[in-house]
Amino acid sequence: MQEKRIIGRIETVDLPELGLYNICAKVDTGAETSVLHCNQFEIFEKDGHRYIRCTIQGHPDFTFLIHRERVVKSSFGQSETRHIFITKIKLFNKLFDIKLSVRDRSSMSYPMLLGRNFISGKFLVDVSHDHLAKNI
């Protein structure tokens, strides 16, 4: 059994497959799914598969194959469909698979949330610290 690393309340992460680095992410054990801010997105079908095209941090036309869709209840109690795709995230100089959904988080303090589905089995959270998983 691999020992779990300790992450803080806030972490700085990289999403290298997206070319996004030094993203400030809030660790949220109350959220099931990890979420990344995007300004706008659209869903489309091509060759029998569903895709999501979105603008992330001012970079237009990120396109991802939708891994799955699920209805989630936001922290405000509203139900919405989240479109989930899989990419890589880097913490502690190690790459991990992460399932991400996208939504407009412009009114939130952090552009990304790391939820339970990603944290579980890999990390323990120490809320008294920040940035324990800095990539060197």
UniProtKB/TrEMBL annotation:
Gene3D superfamilies: Acid Proteases. Pfam families: Zn_protease. It comes from the Bacteria. Residues 6-133 form the Retropepsin-like aspartic endopeptidase domain. GO terms for molecular function: peptidase activity. The keyword Transferase does not apply. One of its GO terms (biological process) is proteolysis. Keywords: Hydrolase, Protease. The keyword Transcription does not apply. This is ATP-dependent zinc protease. It comes from Sphingobacterium chuzhouense.
